[in-house]
Amino acid sequence: MLIAKNVTKKFGELVAVNNLSFEVKKGQVYGIAGPNGAGKSTVYNLITGNYSYEGKIEFNGQDITGLPPHRIAKAGIARTFQIPEIFPSLTVQKSIRLGSRFGARGGLDLEHTDKIISFVGLTSERFQNTRLLNLLGKKKLMIGAALATKPEILMLDEPMAGSNAQEIKSMMELIKKINQELGITIIIIEHFMKVLTELTETLLIIESGTMICCDKPEIVTSDPRVIESYLGDAYAESK
Amino acid sequence: MVFEIIDVIISGLINGSVYALMAVGLTLVYGVTKAFNFAYGSFYNMGGYFAWMLLIPVGLIGGYFSVFFVAIPVFFVVGYLLEKILISPLRKHDDWEMKVMMLTLGLSLFMDFGYQAVFGPRIKSLPGMIEGTLELGQVVLFHQDIVIFILSVGGMICFGWLLNNTRTGMAVQAVAQNPAGAKIVGIPKDFIFAATFAISTIMVGLGGILLSQKTFIDPMGSTNIMIKAWVITAFGGMGSISGSLYAAFILGMLEAFVGWHFGMIYVQIATLTLLLVTLTIRPRGLMGRE
Amino acid sequence: MSLKRMVLILCGFYCVMGIMPLFVGDTDYIMNILVMILIWAVVASCWDVIMGFAGIFSFGQVAFYVMGAYASAILSVSLDIPPVFAIMMAGVITGMLGVLVGLPCLKLAGPYIALVTFAVHMTLIPFLKGPLGRAIGSGGSQGILTIPPINLLGFAFSSEQLVPFFYLTLFLTIICTLILAFIIKSYWGTAFLALKDSENFATSLGISAFRYKLMVFAITSSITGLFGALYAHYVGMLSTKMLSMDVFTILMIMIVIGGIGKYPGVVVGAVITVTINQLLAPVGMYRPLIMGAMVVVLVLFLRDGVIGLAQKFSPLQRKLG
Ligand SMILES: Nc1ncnc2c1ncn2[C@@H]1O[C@H](COP(=O)(O)OP(=O)(O)O)[C@@H](O)[C@H]1O
Ligand SMILES: [Mg+2]
Questions:
Q1: Please, what is the Cα angle at B152 between B146 and B158, to 5 degrees?
Q2: Selection from C273, C231, C257, C217 nearest residue C39 by Cα
Q3: What string of DSSP letters covers B35-52?
Q4: Which residue(s) pair with A59 in the sheet?
Q5: Nearest protein Cα to ligand 1, atom 5
Q6: By the 8 A CB rule, do C43 and C269 touch?
Q7: Phi then psi dihedrals of residue A19, to 5 deg
Q8: How many pairs of residues across A and B have Cβ atoms under 8 Å apart?
Q9: Which end of chain A lies in a sparser environment, N or C, as judged by fewer CB atoms within 10 Å?
Q10: Please, are residues C86 and C72 in contact by the beta-carbon 8 Å criterion?
Q11: Contact C167/C173 with Cβ under 8 angstroms?
């Protein structure tokens, strides 16, 4: 469904993404992990067309390289941001309708947005200004607005960061529901290995922009290279 | 012809050196505080008028030497207080960047017409720092130009040293690179903001004292100076000190050549075209980071 | 602010302005001030829409005003185009120039946009004064002195007969300010707001930054140019004095008094500012000095303008605590 071929991104001297190739299949939950600064978020920014890059990215067989972000959103790729982004001037409902109005192929679909609002659990906050939401609320809002664009693929950037055990659990439920009930393919960047092993079918580990390995989570987490460069010995021992 | 061109190059170098001094101050204050100062040109004129006042009506003994001696602390205090009183209260709100631009634009109008009210609308000239010429074959150098060049380059070296070798200088750099991190390490951000603003006031004020000797003190000329300093800063990449240095000399040369070959009226058009073209090709300027 | 309240404030403004000629119709001095209030109200509104509402730091507002004025004057003087058409063409031309200025601004961060647009303002002065401007008919530093008045169906609207011209201006003001109100409240307006709040998030939801930012530039510069053109045919002469910093400052005071991004508070700002400016006329060269100081003080102490004040002291607010 989403195929990256030899994608490279340099920021001046720094090679943030180095000759990376991968494929995400329809219906999958696909995980990306790696140390801080590995280039994970940059991969998202390349897919969504925020930067120019070398190489090629295809979505549903169509070459999306070089398309501007809003066209990529309309093509069916939605995302969230690592540091939550919101619209401080708008209410929850307006923000989510915005996604539907501008990003969904059929235009504004009130029935769908109402469904989304309750789906992500923001019904009681729907008329609130988004500025007043807590961290979890902001993350739900980003997911809600993204879902309102009726995407085929949803890319989540560290959705669990800063959450407690309870919140992680409910976020995981939500992600599973999005994948199974709405049938949306998911890519997730995450640091919590437990989350990744439970959710994902394929796990891509990158370091310094380079792929270290890419396989089923069980296989990846026992790969000596991954343990050495990312998970650390402590993780291996705790297993 | 050849000697004319040499003259033009020399004039470009000298203007470039003073521009560099001013632009480095501006890029520093933008890099550190993110405040866009529209009144920068009025501080330049403050330098000119300050020197004029001390030299002509007051007749300070020691001439320019004493002027610099007095000017540096005075400009520091002026800059520091302005930042504390006018800019830092705005920083509390999220639309502060725009408010700072508007406020400083108002401030510049106030200052410019203030000069007119106090000193009269006519342009004033400053006496030269030093008389005499140096003749190298057919090339004639004014002593004054040499001194201006040495002082502005010296000023920058001095400033670079302070930035890299003093606690405050290093704190300034830390805030510029990572404001959030600097806060965690316990650097007093508010003091750094005000101090940076004050230092930039010194640099542009000194620029005014130096360059006004070659040109004039024009109460209405501050907008042009402000634009020039900003063009250099943006051209070089806002916040990049080395970028500003290159840009200052490039602009100094460009001005000298355009003025010589096409006439002064085209200088500003050329400068601004340069800015537009650069920013269209490189939105973050010559040396700015993506 | 809801559309209803916006329209309500605007209607109040129209009504007050509309009945003024009944009382002061034969005092040219005051009628002239009223006409200028109407013109500035629209120009300042456009600025508030692009800068306050859409969050684009455009400092080229006066430049577009002057471009419109010169465009229409040149068209009608050099090419003998009837003023009515010249004004319309000037609106279209400034709209296109707005897009042209907007294009390089799309990729730029906030302060760079301020710089580029202000640079356009500053370039306009040597351009219009110099040989390049003279070549297209700007009249150099002397300016253009013989701009014909608007002539509609054989009736001349000019500064000779202020009342008809006033109502013509009022008519155009009503149309343009209402258009702006509806745009702000339409989904376009929501797109502008979203792009201002977070461009990354907005584009990730399918909003085209390219389209909507250029749209803001096009709309605001076009309406601004239209009113610049109207002004040109009203006063009959133009010079680059219009680009002086105190004109810019007056405009700035209007939006600060009205409340930045609090459209249509800015029309109230226009009324207050033009009045103050006229009252200050006797102090001569101290006027810009005072205006400059006013900007500083108002930016510091009147955060959200009169609209902010009104909201603060309105009974509804008090009830909510
Ligand atoms: N816009 C940018 N300009 C310059 N460097 C960047 C930019 N975005 C990211 N980087 C650099 O690219 C590297 C990868 O960053 P990122 O993708 O955010 O890492 P991760 O999400 O894996 O933690 C980092 O070294 C970061 O500093
Ligand atoms: Mg990241």
A1: 130
A2: C231
A3: ---TTHHHHHHHHHHHHH
A4: A2, A62
A5: A11
A6: no
A7: 45, 55
A8: 5
A9: C
A10: yes
A11: no
How far, in Å, CA of B23 to CA of B203, rounded? 9
A60 CA to chain C: closest CA distance, Å?
A: 18
Ligand nearest to the CA of A37: 1
- Model pLDDT for residues C177-222, shown as the tens digit of each residue: 999 999 999 999 999 999 999 999 999 999 999 999 999 999 999 9
CA distances from B86 to B37, B138, B195, C293 (A): 12, 52, 14, 12
By C-alpha distance, the chain C residue nearest A50 is C200
Joined tokens for residue B207:
């620029």
Q: Which residues line ligand 1 (CB under 6 A)?
A: A 11, 14, 16, 34, 36-42; B 290
* Gap between the Cα atoms of C132 and C129, Å rounded: 8
Q: How far apart are alpha carbons B108 and B103 in whole angstroms?
A: 9
B142 sits in which H/E element: strand B139-142
One-letter amino acid for residue C117 of the chain: T
Mean pLDDT rounded to a whole number for chain B? 87
Which sign, positive or negative, has the C-alpha torsion A65, C100, C62, C190? Answer: negative
- Picking from A118-122, A186-190, B235-239, C6-10, which range would have the lowest pLDDT averaged per residue? B235-239
DSSP string for B172-198? HHHHHH-HHHHHHTT--HHHHHHHHHH
Q: What does DSSP say about strands A77-79 and A153-157: parallel, antiparallel, or unpaired? A: parallel
Name the residue with the closest Cα to ligand 1, atom 18.
Answer: A41
With tokens 């400053």, the residue in question is B126
* Residue C98 · residue B269 · CB < 8 Å: no
d(CA B38, CA B29): 12
- DSSP symbol at C238: B
C49 closest CA partner among C205, C153, C185: C185
Predicted structure pTM score: 0.90
Ligand 1: atom nearest CA of A40 is 22
Domain residue ranges of chain C, discontinuous segments joined by +: 3-244
- The ipTM estimated for the assembled molecules is 0.93
How far is ligand 1, taken at its centre, from the CA of residue A16, in Å?
A: 6
Choose the mutation target among B27, B84, B93, B101 for the interface with C, i.e. most C CBs under 10 Å.
Answer: B101
Question: What is the Cα gyration radius of chain C?
Answer: 19
